[in-house]
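Bug report

Summary: structure tokens for Microcystin-dependent protein differ between web form and batch submission.
Environment: batch mode, default settings.
Steps: 1) Submit the sequence below via batch. 2) Compare with the web form result.

Sequence submitted:
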Amino acid sequence: MALSDDDKKDIQEYLHKYLRVKVIALFGLIGLGTIVAILTAGWNAAEKAAEAIAENPSRIADELSKIPEFSDVIAMKATGVPVGSIMPFGGEITTDVRNKLHELGWLPCTGEPVSRNEFKELFSVIGTAWGAPGSLSYNLPDLRGRFIRGVDGNSGQDLESTKRVSSNKGGNSGNMVGSYQNESTRMPTNSWDISDGSHTHTTNGKPWIAGASKEGSFPSGTEHPLSTPSITGGSHGHSINGGDAETRPKNVYVNWLIRFKGPTVQSN
């Protein structure tokens, strides 16, 4: 399948800009004569090179993706996913998988600090929103075991947005991206009914007959109903047992990734 016109244009631009320092990497892919033409004729020759590349796009894509200056054209720009995007990944992240994800421009959201210089594209987008352990590094988002929530802005959906704290030292707090909010349980909307169940209270002493003496004697020929002294339970409480370790919806596990290389959308 041939490259689209947009792909050709992108490759033209990159060839024109970078081939002077990457000539050796393209020997065998396009002829030496084409390279010389690019070096001497500039843009017009680059256009011809792009046409030649279109004859065998899969091979050229494999080779160009190995060159840092071309990787975002082949592996990044084609997808249109901007730097700083966060997405779920349904596989386990082994060392080998992590390396391959890195080649494609993705890092796991584990909160680790990374170099501002090495990952400068991502830093230009997220800055120190998720933390800054030092002047030369910044933290990736740490989404392990956590739910993602949209920034409240001024929507009023998060009633405690101003109480949010930073994910790591030097990160954003309050109503800003990257801030953290600990678990909380709201009082239920519906009231709870608590039943004591059937039970008795034991008392010491004996029942007595109204009108009788302490010894139990009473005048003959009269009625003396049997009475029981009233008993109160006094001040006391009832414990409610049960509950789980946390309040949560039904959920499944994924690994979260953040894009560090590709198209950028940061403000100028």
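Above is the batch result. After comparison, the two runs are identical; trailing whitespace caused the diff. Residues 5-26 form the longest helix (22 residues). The beta strands are 86-89, 106-108, 113-115, 137-139, 165-166, 179-180, 208-209, 226-227, 255-259.
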